[in-house]
Design a protein that fits this description.
Elements (H helix, E strand, L loop, with lengths): L7 H14 L3 H11 L3 H20 L9 H12 L1 H12 L9 H4 L4 H23 L39
Length: 171
């Protein structure tokens, strides 16, 4: 059976095996130092990044949202440019670009931006559960975004005003 005949599920398993075999020791060390994380926390977040990368490789046509601690771990990986480039070439077969949403957030209608981000989050949730057998853990991934007038100028969340989601007065 050639690679075009294997199931998406088997491809995900093969990709995840290749990702886990990659040496992430410098990335872990850098993340722990920058975020004052324990070994256990750093390994947990790395596992989530590896799963995100698996989905990006298995479904290159999809745009998955990334954020929170998983995004911070990816940023640490990207900083090791030669290693990241080699990983993309050897494991993914293509370069996984960092595409920040700065342009979208500056384009006016916050409801459209939030709707698009939530759609990408729902796609991630669905594919994550399909391939990894459970919902992704809260606290290391972005959460659904809301826009409420009373949250304008909120300093609780990491999003620029108006806040996208914070713990104050949210459903």
């Amino acid at each position: 059976m050639n690679s075009s005949q294997i199931s998406v599920e088997q491809k995900a398993v093969n990709v995840m095996k290749a990702i886990v075999a990659h040496d992430f020791s410098k990335v872990i060390k850098s993340y722990k130092k920058e975020h004052k994380a324990t070994d256990e926390e750093a390994v947990f977040v790395l596992t989530q990044l590896q799963r995100w990368l698996t989905l990006c490789i298995v479904y290159p046509e999809k745009q998955y949202i990334i954020g929170s601690k998983v995004d911070a771990m990816w940023h640490n990986f990207i900083l090791f440019t030669k290693d990241y480039e080699r990983f993309c070439k050897d494991v993914a077969g293509f370069f996984i670009h960092h595409l920040p949403d700065v342009e979208a957030e500056g384009q006016g209608d916050i409801e459209i931006v939030i709707g698009e981000k939530n759609k990408r989050l729902e796609t991630l949730e669905k594919d994550y559960e399909k391939h990894f057998g459970h919902k992704f853990p809260i606290g290391v991934w972005p959460t659904p975004m809301y826009h409420k007038k009373e949250h304008e100028g909120c300093n609780t969340c990491q999003m620029p005003p108006p806040c996208a989601r914070c713990s104050v007065g949210m459903p």
